[in-house]
Amino acid sequence: MDNRYDVAIVGGGILGTFHAYHALELGLKVCLLEKDAYPQGATTQNFGQVVPSGMNSKWQKLGRESLRIYTDIQSQFDISIRQNGTVYLASNEEEEQLLVELRAINNNNDYASRMLTKGECLDRYPGLRKEYVKAGLFFPDEVTVEPRTMIHRLQEYLTTQKGLTMKTHFTAVSCERNGDWTRVRSTGNEAVLAKKIIICNGSDFKNLYPEVFAQSDLEVSKLQMMQTKPQKNYSLKGSILTGWSIRRYEAFHECPSFAQVKQNESADSLQKKWGVHILFKQAMDGSVILGDSHQYADVDKIEDLGYDLDMDIDHFMLEEAKKIMELPTYEIHRRWYGMYSQCKTKDIFQTTIDEHIHIVTGIGGKGMTGSAGFSKKNIATIFNKQRINL
């Protein structure tokens, strides 16, 4: 019975871990299975911004629930949450109009935001170039996390205080129904039995269900980011999103002026070619993370994206960042890229193999912001909010 659970979750990233969290909150016995010694995928290779403001109305609700969950956990256990808010910086009148329209939408949704004048932006964000900024829109409730730290602290919290069983170096290679139980077996021939299985391991689910994977509409996005050396005597609060973010994020698609703004853009710019929008966030060590880019390939052609950093992209982002923010140093300490899977035609990939095996993956760039809220809803749906007795 020690190796039998109400639910086993395959994949220890942010989506799988929050499914585990909410299953534990229902009083279920939970096992989280991770193929590596610790999560190393998209969950740890991102900016660490929790920005419901950037999502469409449906996902903003889930993102706002994520904010409540993050802050509740942080009040009990330090998972690196910092509430310094998010700002969108407009560089021209078109972008400022989009900010005004987004603020109106958020007022209707009872989500707090306020417009910042050019002077207020310059006062609040040191180094911001006056020739760049025209206005800002500030969301005070939004938070940042340290992506290379948060997931480990969250899992420590769940294992030490919530009763989660976590098995690492567990690469799942089979998932078979056997009577009342479903058995997940690893490459090391270790087996876990559970009433229900939830598979949240990105595109790796192809190893378990290659036919389902082949019929999916998953694609992979490659994002390049970099991190400066620690900035001396310099503080930058919260998440800084700029004009290209305004032109990219889903939330702005709902603004009346958005279609016309996009129509006015150059179709052959490097920004469009590489999917660049400039972001800034200061890490706890004082360094500044900046980026990022987006390149796409079908999930079965991931090699088309290459396994190296494209230095032309990095150089382009760096030069554009310097036009927006004057930092004490732009000396780069670290460069990396992240890879995440997403759906071409849906918000997230979900399918049920039978009533006991659920695949949930392809959340894309919504992972850090949306996973906590989405997982709460999904766990309630899967278990119908009822305790399953062993």
From TrEMBL:
The residues forming the signal peptide are none
Q: Which cofactors go with this protein?
A: FAD
Q: Could you confirm whether the keyword Transcription appears in this record?
A: no
Keyword annotations of the record: Flavoprotein, Oxidoreductase
The protein's matches in Pfam families, at most eight in alphabetical order, are given as: DAO (PF01266)
Give Gene Ontology CC terms. cytoplasm
Molecular function terms in GO for this entry? Answer: oxidoreductase activity
| Limits of the FAD dependent oxidoreductase domain | 6-375
Would you identify the family this protein belongs to, as annotated? Answer: Belongs to the DadA oxidoreductase family.
Annotated PANTHER family: D-AMINO ACID DEHYDROGENASE, SARCOSINE DEHYDROGENASE-RELATED
Q: Give the protein name, as stated in the record.
A: TIGR03364 family FAD-dependent oxidoreductase
Per the UniProt entry, what species is this protein from, by scientific name? Flagellimonas hadalis
